[in-house]
Amino acid sequence: MSGYTPMIQQYLSIKAEYQDAFLFFRLGDFYEMFFDDALKASKELEITLTSRDGGSQDRIPMCGVPYHAAAAYIERLIEKGYKVAICEQTEDPKQAKGVVKREVVQLITPGTVMEGKSLKENENNYLSSLEREEKHFALALTDLTTGENTVVKLASIDETVTEIYAVGAKEIVISSGFSDIILEQLQKRCAVAVSVSDEDELTEEIISYAEHISDPLLRKAFSRLYHYLKKTQMRNLQHLQKVKEYKLQQHMKIDLYSKRNLELTETIRSKDKKGSLLWLLDETKTSMGARMLKQWIDKPLLDPVEIDKRLNTVETFMNSYFEKEDLREKLKEVYDLERLAGRVAFGNVNARDLTQLRRSLEQIPSIRELVGSLKHPDAARHAEKLDPCEELTVLLSDALAEHPPISIKEGNIIRDGFDEQLDIYRNASKNGKTWMVQLEQRERQSTGIKSLKIGYNKVFGYYIEVSRANLPHLPEGRYERKQTLANAERFITPELKEKEALILEAEEKMAELEHQLFLQLREKVKTFISRLQSLAKTISELDVLQCFATVSDKRHYCKPQFTADEIRLIDGRHPVVEKVMDSQEYVPNNCLMNAERNLLLITGPNMSGKSTYMRQIALTAILAQIGCFVPAKEAYLPVFDQIFTRIGAADDLISGQSTFMVEMLEARNALAHATSRSLILFDEIGRGTSTYDGMALAQAIIEYVHKEIGAKTLFSTHYHELTILEKKLSGLENVHVKAVEDQGKVVFLHKVDRGAADKSYGIHVAELAELPEQLIQRAKKLLSKFEAAGASITREQSDVSAPQTIYPEKEQLSFFHEEEGKQEKAPSKKEMQLLKEIRELNILEMNPLEAMNELYRIQKKLKK
Ligand SMILES: Nc1ncnc2c1ncn2[C@@H]1O[C@H](COP(=O)(O)OP(=O)(O)OP(=O)(O)O)[C@@H](O)[C@H]1O
Asked: 20 partner at 20 to 30 Å CA-CA among 236, 613, 666, 777?
């Protein structure tokens, strides 16, 4: 290091403290980067890489961005998951002896950004920290922009990953000793930046935030997070709220796979909001409401009383159309109070922001009155919680000018009459200017030069300008020449300069005083932060509830009723598919399930609408439990504790899992955790492996769910052989999605009916997809061959009346067909042995790899 110039030495010693961040090193009007930072940043930001002499033998790589344009570059780096340390000159270069003093004033990280494009208006931006103690995890979450602080205890890595994914945490802080394996899992599944910080000491300050949290592991997680915030932000964090604990058991559990499969907040394929349930529902008018909507979708309620409170308010809004529309108009005027409170604490709001705050607050009394007048008590109770913060409104409207500028240093911020001294300066400046106008008149009269004028510029101040042609009319000696232009001369007089000094002094003092007054005002606003935060919460709730009412009204949804154990949906629809296609074309369907009939086996051709039907039930349950009306004519539903899905097309390519493995993992998750109060959707389980394997697994899974779990289950399959299970399992009912053949072509009716489907129509679908004609003809031939071979089985199955003949001890036999063209024959001893082995497998005790190995072994034996 000694070979380097003092400035580079200074750079290197600061950089050593911020190894994992880009160091933006302030040099005059630029932020410069050196060495590896420069090499990397020039690529990431597509800026020119140069070099400079730094005292060493080789020149040092360097690149830089102008300070006034830095925000956009910082944003780009943050979006890519990097951190940026802002290093400023902290002394006046003119006063400095040697190298100017420099210090890092803020470390910006993905979880701590306060502004810019990487901060989505409608989404929370969470910084998290994770602790582990044996099998338990503690997760702490802070949204620095809103000040929200929460902690949650989690019982497994699966739950933890699901929660971090669901809240969309941008960054996670862990100790240096944290398990690599867990970290790897996390990074595979969630796009989260990792930061290491070993500081976790429980200080008085931290205890004051976490006074209601007794669990030491939760406190530790918050503690680590708080230290990290202090270290990176180096400023006031006054807007941080008291830490609240939430429990997963308070909400319907939806695992990571199911959240993705059901496309709650983004679609599986394009990861877009468009096409998701969130997209369908988002009729909110404020960013705060939009953020809360996402949180609600993520955490449906379990308590019917709480759900009903929301539903009653939604219903009231639907019955009070004009009030609702009025409220929507008013909400449009309400600014993001939650994030504003955060920026007030950070000290980076300007007068325009405060004017927006004033306008927002001015809406509150009329919103309060409107909501208070609603007929239902559950709706009206929101009015009491709306605190209009009157003192603040009065203060802001007294203090702030009507249209203040963005800059807080150039005046015109404070209203006349707010501060006596400011008014004096203003008058001095105003009088001075009037005096100038009068002087112009006087000079014109005394000289007789009509075009004489008084002007102002920054270099010479006030001057008297006379055109060249009029110069002879000017009296001698009274005027001092200051500037010569092409066609005119500019003059000053002692009197003019005297007045100018008064005006400029007043203006300078005025700007300085206005700045001071504004800073004082901002300090006063700080004392309202927590009241603004509670107000923001109530406004967000109202916004989400009016949003539910708007969607429910527009799309003709009905109010769901909760039952002990019955699903009865009349004319139910899939909310998103219905919106995307013309509602006229959507075929509504019923769903009837209860304690005795809790398993629907759904058959039907490809493309007929099996998946849509299943998803529709899950989305309806979620809508009901977040307190929204549902897409049906009538809806009776139990309160589900959890939803599990195994639905095709969600191949987990990112985590490098095979399709079949994902299928098995999802099934395992459902089987291990579902209860009789859960809802399970299994879409074509087993299709990812050979027919025999697949059918065997499918039947075993159905039987397991039926006997051991009793959850409401919808199971779609192409294995028609499974429909016979209706005769054996009392809770299972066959339904099918109808299709008919019309002149050799398949027509999908999308109608769900009782009983099993008679045909698959797979070849028709292939025909629709325009596979080569020759291939289609060959497939048709092969199909008739298979059907002829299989006819005997179907006959055998269908005319057996006594269940024991359909399901003798060797019940699985009926699954086995011979290969193409051969007649069915009884299974061999070896096959029987294998079946027994499959049956005795304890899938739930195995890890996925063991399950795969086991399957592989069985398959190998069968092939021999
Ligand atoms: N009730 C309905 N009314 C109108 N159109 C529907 C309905 N249900 C489904 N569809 C249409 O049919 C398409 C196929 O539906 P879906 O994916 O649910 O079929 P599927 O039976 O699960 O197919 P596969 O077996 O190939 O997975 C949907 O994209 C939708 O356009």
From this structure: 236
Pocket test for ligand 1, best of 585, 602, 611 (most atoms within 8 A of CB): 611
Question: Which residue owns the Cα nearest ligand 1 atom 5?
Answer: 586
pLDDT digits (tens, 9 = 90+) for 570-623: 999 999 999 998 667 899 999 999 999 999 999 988 888 999 999 999 999 999
Q: Give the residue carrying structure tokens 């449906």.
A: 300
Token code pair at residue 312: 């009653």
Does residue 808 contact residue 799 with C-beta atoms inside 8 Å? no
Query: Is the Cβ atom of 253 under 6 angstroms away from ligand 1?
Result: no
Which fold, 126-250?
Nucleotidyltransferase; domain 5 (3.30.420)
DSSP letters along 381-450, please? HHHHH----HHHHHHHHHHB-SS--S-SSSS--BPTTS-HHHHHHHHHHHHHHHHHHHHHHHHHHHH--T
pTM of the entire predicted model: 0.79
**Residue 611: closest CA among 589, 581, 634:** 589
Secondary structure (DSSP) of 159-227: HHHHHHHHHT-SEEEE-TTS-HHHHHHHHHHS--EEEE-------HHHHHHTTT---HHHHHHHHHHHH
739: CB partners within 8 A, 6+ apart: 604, 605, 608, 746, 747, 748, 749, 757, 759, 761
Alpha helix segments (H runs only) across 488-609: 494-526, 529-554, 575-580
Query: Which residue ranges make up the annotated binding site for ATP?
Result: 604-611
Task: Supply 760's token pair.
Answer: 């698959």
Nearest to 766, CA basis, from 758, 756, 777: 777
Asked whether 587 lines ligand 1 (CB < 6 A), one says yes
CA of 693 to the centre of ligand 1 (A): 26
What angle is formed at CA 255 by the lines to CA 253 and CA 261, rounded to 5 degrees? 120
Mean pLDDT rounded to a whole number for the chain = 87
Please state the ipTM of this predicted complex: 0.98
Residues 6+ apart with CB under 8 A from 361: 388, 389, 392, 393, 396
Region 6-108: CATH code: 3.40.1170.10
Could you say which of 3.90.1150.10, 3.30.300.20, 1.10.1420.10, 3.40.120.10 is the CATH number of the domain covering 282-330+350-389+529-554?
A: 1.10.1420.10
Is ligand 1 within 6 A of the CB of residue 611?
A: yes
Judge if the beta carbon of residue 393 lies within 6 A of ligand 1. no
